[in-house]
Give the backbone structure.
Amino acid sequence: MFLPQRYIYSTLLFTFMSTAVFSQNSVLSEPQKDIIDIAHEQLFAVINKDQNTVYVVNFWATWCQPCVEELPDFMEVNKHFAKDENFKMYLVTLDFARKKKELVIPFIQKNDIRAEVLLLDDNKRMNTWISLIDKSWSGALPATLIYKNGKSLFFKEGNMDKNELITQISKHL
């Protein structure tokens, strides 16, 4: 049976939105076995909801050493705020989608990553969406943002330690 591309896209978008928006707990019970590929519009649809949730969005990649070094701190912070229903963390990898099964998923499992990981498969339009994320972002990794009620409240290009991250999240919860 042939399904129109629009139907498939709508179904995938609904599945993504349902998983991302309705999941209450920021700490997953185990590392993800699969990762959803998204475009920047889908990411914006999730983090720009008018609700009282503080979204921490960290852009990273497996090939980025500073990103890999800060991930344990992000996992500690995610665990610290896990019981707060107004908190959600997304780790948005910029690895290539074709490397997802052989590189990204094994990395997540090996490193016991328990926050929701999304793969931003929108590399061809990077010059478009980087400035939409934050006008001051050069595109360097890692980069961390905090959103609430559809507004960007914090942006940092470069590493963050757990104390800095906890301070920034606590300001907005």
Observations:
- The chain has one domain: 39-172.
- The longest helix spans residues 5-22.
